[in-house]
Structure formats: structure tokens, C-alpha cells
Specification:
164 residues; alpha/beta; 6 helices
């Protein structure tokens, strides 16, 4: 079986992966979903000093301390930036990277937003009134309807000029 490390996006915590964790464990896989510093249940650690490298180290140390090998690293949204950094630092421990509706950095030190595809951005007409539920796919109901609302953190909105 495989070992998965699931990395959430910028406005979530490891808890957002609970339904996927259940499914993967049901197939016999090992799964961990750590929460990045300053987010989710670790929001009490939020600080202007937290940068993407902080989050890369969160996952690097998670993999090292749990002595994980042959890891399938999954990143959602901002988590794509993080898994790219982790793979650069621990290539010997990573089997594969999975970018799940995620940012895929193309060049170190260059903003993914600055290099976005203008045709794709112009064609994006999808709108959702509750972005969090839309991102996690729980807007359509089903067994997990309402699950995300129970665990969502009500967070302070910050302008884009503030570092994560």
C-alpha cells in the first residue's frame, strides 16, 4: 500500500482532508494530514513572520519525524507551492507529487499569480457564494453535506499585502 501526506491550502487545516483520509485508509493506505503553522487548529501560532518556507519545513519535519518513505505528497491550492518545496528538500523520500487543483510553481522566486495564463483567467466564469465549501466540493450535498461548515475556522480577513 501507499503512504500519503496531504497538504491543505492557505485557509484550511489538516482537518479538511478527513473524508479523503477515511476513503484512503479504507483501501489500506497510510495517510497523514498535518496542519501548517498559523492555520486551522494551529491558528494561535499565526504571525507576520510565517512565510511559505515555514510551511515547507512543517512538512519536511513531519516526514522526517514520522520516518516516512516513498511518500505520495498531495497539495491542494496553496499546498502545491509547499509540496514543490518539500520535494526539492527531500527528493529521496518522495515517490510522487499530486497537484489537486493547486498552484504549480514553474520558476523559483516568481509569483504564480504574475505568470498566470490570461486566457484561462478570462475564461473562469465559475462563481461560488461560499468559497471554502466550493473548494472542498461540499456545496452539492450528500453524506458530507454540512461537514465543512462544522469545522470551518472563522478567520480574520487580511489584505493581499500581508504575508502568510
Amino acid at each position: 500500500m501507499a503512504t500519503f501526506v496531504l497538504v491543505h491550502g492557505a485557509w484550511h487545516g489538516g482537518w479538511c482532508w478527513a473524508p479523503l483520509e477515511r476513503a484512503l485508509r479504507g483501501y489500506g493506505h497510510d495517510v497523514t494530514s498535518p496542519t501548517l503553522t498559523g492555520l486551522g487548529e494551529r491558528s494561535h501560532l499565526a504571525s507576520p513572520d510565517i512565510v511559505p518556507d515555514t510551511h515547507v519545513l512543517d512538512i519536511v519535519y513531519h516526514i522526517q519525524w514520522k520516518d516516512l518513505e516513498d511518500v505520495i505528497l498531495v497539495g491542494h491550492s496553496y499546498g502545491g507551492v509547499i509540496i514543490t518545496g518539500v520535494a526539492d528538500r527531500l527528493p529521496e523520500r518522495i515517490r510522487a507529487l499530486v497537484y489537486l487543483d493547486a498552484i504549480v510553481p514553474e520558476k523559483s522566486g516568481v509569483s504564480a499569480i504574475a505568470n498566470r495564463n490570461p486566457e484561462r483567467a478570462a475564461g473562469d466564469t465559475h462563481r461560488c457564494t461560499d468559497l471554502d465549501r466550493c473548494l472542498l466540493g461540499h456545496a452539492g450535498g450528500g453524506r458530507d453535506a454540512g461537514w465543512h461548515d462544522r469545522y470551518r475556522l472563522y478567520r480574520e480577513r487580511r489584505p493581499y499585502g500581508v504575508r502568510l
